[in-house]
Amino acid sequence: MRLDYLTIFPEFFDVLGISLLGKAVDNGIVDIHAHDLRTWTHDRHRTVDDTPCGGGAGMVMKPDPWGEAFDDLLGADPDPSVHVVIPTPSGTPFRQDDAAQLSHADRIVFCCGRYEGIDHRVIDYASEHWSVHELSLGDYVLNGGEVAALAMTEAIVRLVPGVLGNPESLSEESYSQDQEGLLEYPVYTRPASWRGWDVPEVLMSGHHGHIAQWRREQSRELTRRRRPDLLTDE
């Protein structure tokens, strides 16, 4: 899998060289490239923004640098196997299903907007050439798309085979199919008693059937309290 990041702050993505993502890069599972959008500007101020047409506050990212970046990185021929991800608060919510879908992609290009956003013609152009995903992390606004792109990257790459040391750990996580799309149950480890709080007795019983039942019940109760929208049979 190749991941490209178009941004005016490429240093944001230095963090991808550590932890499991860094190991995935070292092992050749993931190939990461962060590109400075200002590389594709031609004035001495390396300008990437201009005032919004129709008036209003803030600045809008100009289409020309994006178009030239696309030409250099992706060429002019349409290729729906390339996925272009645009983090934006006006996008559809980024879900685990999106991460699972994108984990099968051979190439993903993250377009990290700033200011009031990217000239919409860039998105229209990309949509005619590649598979475009306008995605939002949640109902809030960030200063730019870099933080969202990092979060999405971690959610996607950890699902790529070979990235996690124990892939079975994915099966019991929140939102997984084995979890029936529910939130994950509470987890505990030793010592059995800590500051007056004990590990639930059933988890120390060694009875796998009772443990599985307790975990299912805990998942449903936690989901009912925190995310009732995930319950489909209530």
Automatic annotation (TrEMBL):
Which Pfam families does its entry note? tRNA_m1G_MT
Q: What is its main location?
A: cytoplasm
EC number annotated for this UniProt entry: 2.1.1.228
Where do the annotations place S-adenosyl-L-methionine binding? 113, 137-142
Q: Where in the cell is it found?
A: Cytoplasm
EC main class here is transferase
Report the residue ranges that make up the tRNA methyltransferase TRMD/TRM10-type domain in this protein. 1-232
List the GO biological process terms.
tRNA N1-guanine methylation
Sorted UniProt keywords: Cytoplasm, Methyltransferase, S-adenosyl-L-methionine, Transferase, tRNA processing
Known partners and oligomeric status: Homodimer.
Q: Which PANTHER family match?
A: TRNA (GUANINE-N(1)-)-METHYLTRANSFERASE
In the record, the note on similarity to other proteins reads: Belongs to the RNA methyltransferase TrmD family.
Q: What is this protein called?
A: tRNA (guanine-N(1)-)-methyltransferase
Q: Which gene encodes it?
A: trmD
